[in-house]
Specification:
Blueprint (H helix, E strand, L loop, with lengths): L3 E6 L2 E6 L10 H16 L5 E6 L3 E3 L18 H18 L4 E5 L2 E3 L1 H8 L2 E5 L3 E3 L13 H9 L1 H10 L3 E2 H7 L4 E3 L1 H16 L3 H14 L4 H16 L2 H11 L4
Parallel strand pairs: 2-3, 3-5, 4-6, 5-7, 6-8, 7-10
Antiparallel strand pairs: 1-2, 8-9
Helix pairs in contact: 1-2, 4-5, 8-9
Ligand LHQ binds next to helix 2 and strand 6.
Length: about 260
């Protein structure tokens, strides 16, 4: 059985992490399949938005720890290898994909799974979902972008509490704190996430790609640098058909 399922409809590629019996914990095969699915989303011009979710009752429990169990007396495992080979390229690919990614967080998102959820551009979560920075329980630091995303999304005080205490944060609290876009009743999650992804897929893809670029660049830029970036991106978009058509439609009072 594939550990990642994909389907495409109405411009949206739906990617479903599919190891439900292990709460969609990552093994190398799942990383490889997810990478292929995201490459396809990048290359296929008919795909204009991505919807990422998990099969079963969890979104993703992070690294499959059965694969990272060090037996007594055995040589330690170099964890940087899996970050360098899999998790870091995944987070970069998601952030750099010039198409919006909607995360539909259907259940618990733990460890790297929580931070992959936060790497999506718009995060919707089921009311029963939760976010756990479980790394400290293993004596690890939050990875997959966690130490970057958390302080930027919720501030250092809350980021530190989440990272040090490794307690589950409910979807409702995550919404109140601004960690995610919106919490939805469980049965509304997939219909609303699909509708949102389709809406994004029918919008100005080039503009959306550059909105991602600008907003994510802002975290490392001065205001001056950001103003210049906005000027450059706007120049590029001002030459696009989307802009020309949208202005004409506005002036002619068409939608
Ligand atoms: C799992 C897992 C799991 C294997 C649930 N692995 N089986 C990157 C690079 C390299 C190395 C190190 O790490 C990283 C990044 C990371 O992601 S580190 C963090 C790894 N993840 C965790 O520490 C989370 C571990 N899981 C949990 O704490 C709980 O399972 C949560 C809170 C997610 C859910 O709890 P429950 O709802 O009570 O479910 P459960 O614990 O009963 O899990 C259901 C099954 O899934 C169970 O299997 P079983 O055969 O007993 O039914 C778990 O063993 C399995 N599972 N997470 N990460």
């Amino acid at each position: 059985m594939a550990s990642v399922l994909t389907s495409a409809e109405a411009g949206v590629q739906t990617i479903t992490l599919n190891r439900p019996e292990k709460l969609n914990a990552f093994i190398p095969e799942m990383h490889k399949e997810l990478r292929r699915a995201l490459e396809q989303a990048l290359d296929d011009s008919a795909i204009r938005a991505v919807l990422l979710t998990g099969a079963g009752r969890g979104f993703c429990a992070g690294q499959d720890l059965a694969e990272r169990n060090v037996a007594p007396g055995a040589a330690p495992i170099d964890l940087s290898v899996s970050l360098g080979s899999y998790y870091n390229p995944l987070v970069r690919r998601m952030r750099e994909l010039p198409k919006p990614i909607v995360g539909a967080i259907n259940g618990v998102a733990a460890g790297a799974g929580a931070n992959i959820a936060l790497a999506c551009d718009i995060v919707l979560a089921a009311r029963s979902a939760s976010f756990v920075q479980s790394f400290a329980r293993l004596g690890l630091v939050p990875d997959s972008g966690g130490t970057w995303f958390l302080p930027r999304l919720v501030g250092t005080a809350r980021a530190m509490g989440l990272a040090l205490l490794a307690e589950p944060l409910s979807a409702e609290q995550a919404e109140r704190w601004g960690l995610i876009w919106k919490v939805l009743d469980d049965e509304r999650l997939m219909p609303e996430a699909t509708e949102l992804a389709r809406r994004l897929a029918s919008g100005p893809t080039k503009g959306f790609g550059l909105i991602k670029k600008a907003l994510y660049a802002s975290a490392g830029n001065s205001l001056d640098a950001q103003l210049e970036l906005e000027r450059d991106l706007q120049r590029e978009l001002g030459f696009s058909d989307d802009y020309r058509k949208a202005v004409a439609e506005f002036l002619e009072k068409r939608t």
